[in-house]
Amino acid sequence: MKKIVSLCKFILLVLALVVSLTFVDRLFSFKTAHGIKQARDLYAQPKDTVDVVFLGSSHMHVNINTALLWEKYGIAAYDYSGAEQPLWMTYYYLKEFCKYQKPKVMVLDFFAPANFLDDYQYKYIGDNFYGLKPSVNKLGMLKVSVEPSRVLEFFPALVSYHMRYQELEQADWDYLSETQEDKSAFKGYTPYFKTGEWEKPEFDAEDPLPLTDKSLEYLDKIIDFCNENEIEMFFIVTPYIKEYEADQRFEYVERLCAERGIWFEDGTEMYETLDLDFSQDFFDFSHLNYRGSCKYTDYLGAGLKFRFDIPDHRGDERFESWDRNVIAIQEEVAEAGW
C-alpha cells in the first residue's frame, strides 16, 4: 500500500510540474504576430485543408489578405511567414508545414533573400523560431541559422523569456484562454491600418545579381522538396519601395525561374497594373497597408486561380474556419475605422 501511495504522489508531482511548466510557457512566451503567431496557429488548422501556403518574410503576412482570397476566390490559404525570413529558415518552415497540411501550391517571397545577405541573421530570429513545436526539424533549423556559440541564447526557449514577468501585458493573459477554435480562425494575415507617403521607384534593373551561396543552396532544397511532394511553385516579389541592388537580384530570380519552368511575378514592376497609390496604399517603404493589401491580393488571387487548379471550398463545413477568418478581419477593419 505504501508503494502505491508513493507512486501516486510521484505521478501527481510530475503532473503538477508539467501543468506548471505549460502555464509558465503559455504566459511568458513571446507572442508576436510577425512569425510566432503564424507558426503557432498552424497547429490549430484543420488537417489537410490549406491549398495555398505563402512562405517568406513579413511581406506575406502583411501584404496578402487570406480573408479576401477566401471570400472572393474560395482559396483556402495560410500566410506561414516570419519577419525577414531567410531561405534556410523557409526550407524548414516548408517541411514543418507539410507535416500537417498537403498544399497544392507554395508561393515563395524573395524580399529577404534579395535584401539581407549575411549567413546568420539575428535581428528577427526569435520571430521565426519560437512559434514552432519542439522537433528534430526545429533543431535542424536552429543549427543552420545560429552560430554554435549562440545556440543557448535561443534554446531552450524558456532561457529567452523567463524574465518577461516584468513586462506582461493583457495579451499574455488573454492567450491563456485562447482555444483551438479561436486559433483556427487565424490564417496568418496581419493587416496594417496606417498610411505613409512614398515616392514611386522609377527604375527597372536588367543586370542580374545572384543570391548568396547559402540562399541558393536552400532554394535548391526548397525546389527539390516541392518537386518530390508534387507541390506547384509560384515565386513572387510583393509591391514595396525597392532599391536598385535588390531589383538586380529579382532579375536573377526571374531568369532562374524561366530556366526551371517556375512561375514568377514581380509586384514591384506592376505599380500601375495594381493601381497602387503611393500616398494612400503603403504603411511604410516595405509594406502595404490594409487598402494596398486588398488591391494586391485581389490581383494575386485571380492569377492563382488562372495558373493553378485550386478548388473552391466555400460552403464546405470542413473549411468553416475561413468564414470565421473573414469575420475576424472585418471586425479588425471596423475597429480601425477603415
Question: Could you please describe the fold and organization of this structure?
Answer:
Helix 4 (66-73) packs across helix 15 (320-336). With 338 residues, this protein is of the alpha/beta class. A 5-stranded parallel beta sheet has the order 2-1-3-4-5, with helices on both faces. The protein has helices at residues 2-28, 36-40, 58-63, 66-73, 87-100, 111-115, 125-129, 136-145, 158-161, 170-176, 180-184, 213-228, 244-260, 290-307, 320-336; strands at 52-56, 77-81, 105-109, 232-237, 263-266.
How many DSSP H or I helices?
15
The end-to-end distance, rounded to whole angstroms, is: 68 Å
Task: Give the overall average pLDDT.
Answer: 91
Q: What do we call the CATH topology?
A: Rossmann fold
How does CATH name the architecture? Answer: 3-Layer(aba) Sandwich
Count structural domains. Answer: 1
List the helices and strands and how they pair.
Layout: H1 2-28, H2 36-40, E1 52-56, H3 58-63, H4 66-73, E2 77-81, H5 87-100, E3 105-109, H6 111-115, H7 125-129, H8 136-145, H9 158-161, H10 170-176, H11 180-184, H12 213-228, E4 232-237, H13 244-260, E5 263-266, H14 290-307, H15 320-336
Compact summary:
The chain has 338 residues and is of the alpha/beta class. It has a single domain, classed as Rossmann fold (3-Layer(aba) Sandwich), CATH 3.40.50.1110. The protein is 49% helix and 7% strand.
List keywords for this structure.
15 helices; five-stranded parallel β-sheet; 338 residues; globular; 49% helix; alpha/beta; Rossmann fold
